[in-house]
């Protein structure tokens, strides 16, 4: 394996990546989203492609340019992302859930543009689907990798997510790198082995994540 070229290490393998944010709508033109840039997913997809994989990128809203040779499925809402991930999941060898999915969605969605009336407007939110947890419950031979965005680098929160969602690895990243070109991560497996990758370009981090997982 050591002697294989970078371009062959994932030859014949199917890699599924999700990236970007999601949008949950209040009415036809208004939504709640987050500031995820899509860069981590983009770099994971690019590195997997460079290693010879067949790559599908389930692509939530973001500004990243599209990469030639990658199969894109553009989605907007958590439900669309869920369906797109499920459609490709069974056939995949490695699944990287790097999208920042909305935890909540408006309880009611208005069919028409909401008019302003009172001085205050109360929004009620309900939990939205946990895509990764659902994939974890359906996992057979896939290697499933989640991402945990934690404020203070909390390893125990990441470890809880790894076991609750039936993951093979969880990549812990500090929220301070959200949107940045760089990241610093800890890659944690089920035995609690931790590979720490110091602050580096997201391309370097992505390569290290993939190498650790394969
Ligand atoms: N995730 C998901 N669907 C959701 C929320 C999260 O698939 N509705 C995935 C993310 O893509 C990520 C992992 O779950 O790979 C962890 O996301 P994170 O937001 O760190 O954790 P949560 O489980 O949502 O918990 P919390 O936000 O309360 O920390
Ligand atoms: Ca969350």
CATH superfamily membership, which one? Answer: CoaB-like
Give me the strand/helix succession. Answer: EEEHEEHEEEHEHEEEH
H/I helix tally: 5
For the record, give the distance between the C-alpha atoms at the N and C termini, rounded to a whole number: 11 Å
**According to CATH, what is the topology?**
Rossmann fold
Q: Estimate nothing, just give the exact number of structural domains.
A: 1
User: Nearest-angstrom radius of gyration?
Assistant: 18 Å
Bound compounds: cytidine-5'-triphosphate, calcium ion
Largest sheet: 8 strands, mixed
Instruction: Note the beta-strand portion.
Output: 25-35%
Query: What is the structural class?
Result: alpha/beta
Mean pLDDT over the residues: 94
What low-confidence regions span 5 or more consecutive residues with pLDDT below 50? none
Major sheet strand order = 5-4-1-6-9-10-11-12
Helical coverage, percent range: 25-40%
Q: Under the CATH scheme, which architecture would be assigned?
A: 3-Layer(aba) Sandwich
Number of strands: 12
- CATH class bucket: Alpha Beta
Which descriptor suits the 3D outline?
Answer: globular
């Amino acid at each position: 394996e050591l002697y294989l070229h970078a371009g062959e290490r994932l030859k014949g393998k199917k890699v599924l990546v999700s990236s970007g944010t999601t949008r949950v709508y209040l009415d036809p033109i208004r939504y709640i989203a987050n500031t995820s840039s899509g860069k981590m997913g983009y770099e994971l997809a690019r590195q997997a492609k460079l290693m010879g994989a067949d790559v599908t990128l389930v692509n939530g809203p973001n500004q990243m340019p599209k990469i030639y040779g990658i199969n894109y499925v553009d989605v907007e809402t958590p439900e669309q992302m869920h369906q797109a991930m499920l459609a490709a999941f069974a056939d995949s060898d490695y699944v990287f859930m790097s999208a920042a999915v909305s935890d909540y969605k408006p309880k009611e969605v208005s069919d028409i543009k909401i008019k302003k009336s009172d001085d205050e407007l109360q929004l009620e939110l309900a939990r939205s689907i946990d895509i990764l947890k659902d994939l974890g419950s359906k996992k057979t031979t896939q290697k499933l990798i989640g991402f945990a965005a934690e404020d203070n680098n909390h390893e125990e929160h990441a470890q809880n997510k790894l076991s609750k969602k039936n993951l093979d690895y969880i990549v812990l990243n500090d929220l301070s790198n959200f949107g940045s070109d760089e990241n610093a991560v800890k890659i944690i497996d089920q035995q609690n082995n931790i590979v720490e990758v110091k602050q580096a370009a997201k391309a370097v981090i992505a390569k290290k994540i993939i190498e650790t997982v394969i």
